[in-house]
Structures are given as structure tokens and as C-alpha cells.
């Protein structure tokens, strides 16, 4: 299910309405004057929503409060406001309105086509049109609402109101990786299907109650086009939209978890349409990639592919592991391909084989597997060629120490539960999913680096990097220390060099580098094959600090100390080699 934190909160500040008071000499009455930054609203609107324009009318309910009990808006509290060219809001009745002595609450709305007082403030009828092929249709579909979060008095100088969108907007963009077989100009008849299109809005609470009218929304296909929908939940396994491509119908089905369309949210849908050459009759299969929304990656990526439908069988799967979904990372002579969310049932995967030419094969580099228990694991392959003939098999034999794995070599297999001093090796659990857990060391060396620079805050203080078995925990401790002490990561050369290798790499803890050195003969065989730098008899640096009055300088690793040995962090330049959990 998509997370709330992954959605951009673009409702934000739509209108800044400043309420200033003009004091007349004759009566000393305080006249209410609203000012709206129309230009700012129009700038905020670009690419995401309709905005308030000159000549539009805004409805405000200015409710005078008597006593402490909250006063809800009534029809007689309604004031129709004109949006003027100078950015002001004036009262449409042309009358003078003065600031009351009692506190006031403010409610309001803006919607094209609704420029008068509603009959029932607790059930204002709102709806969206089922044909949204023009900009005017989008503008008339939007609904903005404001409710003051506090009571205002006549002595206050400024009132700021934040208008928020109550509907959701979806923006669509088509693209293709196979332009020789897909003509995007032939996409027609785009519809968002079976969505609720009417409801009742409560001006007092800002709550929307959905009605029962369900219909399709028709949109005009363009380079980027939009529709506005009422906020609602689209249940899993239901088609959300469909279209025609050269007369053939394509559709997008929501995943089992469902899809919430939330008010004030912009849903960007990038639709990738591919048609690959196959071998024989072509079946249509829809594969879907939906990423969790967050501030860095808001779009929904939808993949709709045509081509030969093939089956690949998983073998030697570890006991107790049931795979139900897979992401495949494929490559050919000219392209890298990712096939996401491939369903797996009874260890069989069925998906569209993205061939470049008829009869072509693909190299499988990595697969990311999801299990029925919610666990995930990566599996790396070397020189694995898929023929796409329904006879392909992928052996998932649990890896072992000394195997090449991704861009490194495995030095521990299983979930780490401790360290055996006698065997100089980690104690691990390898049952079930843990058979695919472990740790790897980088094939390359980072050279001789200091733990920290002389000017680092942690040069003479403990940063809290006390974990002896997991350098990732020490990295977290250092980051927390840096934040609290106004320090910077650049002052810690070994840490930043390990992170620089890429996602997941870190400066190893003491027992991690000891285990690596203890297994160097087994690891060096693969490191040499990868044209890396072999592990030698060196004093290797670790990320671990401890409160002891001695330091280790054996060939298995180096354990940095605090207390009497603060200076070793900056004076000792030792060999650094990064590790990563997989």
C-alpha cells in the first residue's frame, strides 16, 4: 500500500488572505479588507491545479462568536467576495462591513459554478463531470475550502487563511521503449473507470460524504493530460483506467492492497507501453510497478507490455521460503531491462519476455524476490542466459562463504547472531529466509585512511560507535554524533570512503574485519577473478570504539580505543576495506 509519507503534500498555501483594518475618522469603526495574492496562487497552480483568477468569486462565512461555544456557519453569515485585479477581495454587495467586537470564525470555499450560498451548509452538493477533455472542465471540477483554525478578534492585525483542495488530481504521461512497434499517437479513448463522481460537502467540518453515482471519466490524450477525481479508495484487483492502442484495449489494474486517492494530492502516472517481438502468437500481459510515494519519488510507474508470454521455474529454493513476487534485472547487447512485480506461484514465474529481436535471448544479472511472509532478498547470477522458451530454470542454491556476490565476495552466510573467537568466524542462523542473508566484502581496497581528521569533534570524544559485529550501527551512531555536535562526515575519511562505494556499503566493525582477514585465502580466489585487490597481512582499520585500556594491533584487525588511546584515531593510518550486508 502506498504510504502517506511518500505523497507530495501540494495542498499547501493556495491563498494568503490578509485581513487588515481601516479606521475611519468619523466612526472609528474597523472595516474588514481582505487582500489575496492572486499571482502567488497562479504560480502555485502551474502543473498541478486550478487557481483563483481575476473575476472569480469566493464565498466566505464570517461567523460572530458569542461566548465560548463554537458557532457554526449559517446562511445569513455568507458573503460573496469578488476577486479584483489588484489582488484584493471585495464584498460583492458593495456594502461596508466592519470588524466585530466579538471573536469571529471564518469558513469559505471557491468552486466555479457555485458562486452563491448553498441551500444546506451541512450537505453542499459537489460533483465532477464525466467528460474532462478541456481545461474548462478541469477548472470547474476543482473545489477549494478554508476553515479558520482559531478565533479572530478586532484587535488582531492580520488573518491568514489557507485554502486547500478537497479533490485529487491525476496526471498521465505516456512513453515507450519500443518506438518501432508502438505509436503513441494511436492512443485513444482514455477513461478512468467506475469512480464515484458526486458527494455532499460539510462546510462546517470540511468532511466529504461520497454518493452512489459511479461512472467513467473521459479524458483527452495529450503529451501530459489530467483528470480530477473525488477522494476515494480504489479496491485491489480492479481496473482504474483503460485506453485503446491502435484499436487494442489496454488497462491498468490496481494491486491487491488497493489505492487511496486522497484529497489535495497529485498522482503522477508515467505509463510505459512496450511491444516486444516474440516467437509465435503474442499474448497480452500487463505488469505493474507501483512505488511507494515520498517526496523524492512521487510518480506511479505503470508498465503495459505486449510480447511473448514465457514461464521461468525456480529450483533449489531454501526450505521454508515461499516466493510470491519477483523483480528481474535483465540486459542484452544494447539495453538494460527491468521487469517488475512478476507474480510467482508454485515457484513458476510468468511474464512478458522483453526481446529486442525475434528469437533473441537475455542475460539475467540479478533478481529481487518477495516472499509470502513479507521478507525480501536479492539473488545474483553470473553468465545466466534466459532463452525464453518456457524451459528456463533459476537455481536458488543458498550461497556460501567465498562466493562472488554482486560487486564483492561473501565472508559470512546467514543472519549474524554472534562471533566465535575460537573459529574467528561469525555464528549465524541459516534457516529459511536467513539462508539468503549474509555479508560481503568489497573486492577493492580503499587504501590507508585515518579514522578521523584532527579537526573532527570525535577525535577526542567517543562518537558512540561501540558495536563490534555490525559497522552499519556504528555509522548510524556517527551520523547522530555529527548532527548533535555540528560536525561533518568529511572529517571521518574511512567512513565516508566506504559509503562512497554505493548504497549499503559501510566501514566494518571490529569482528567483521577480523572475519574477513581470517577467511582471506578463501576470499582472495574470487577477488582475484574480479580483478580486485587481494586481502593481505595488514593492520586493518575498524569502525568500533570501546572503553578499554588496551588496543588490538594483531593481523586480524585494529580496534580503535578511547580513554588513553584517543590519538590513535588521527595518528594511525590503516588499511580500509568496505563491507555490506545482503
Automatic annotation (TrEMBL):
UniProt xrefs under PROSITE patterns: PROKAR_LIPOPROTEIN
Record Pfam families: Mfa_like_1
Protein name, UniProt field: Fimbrillin family protein
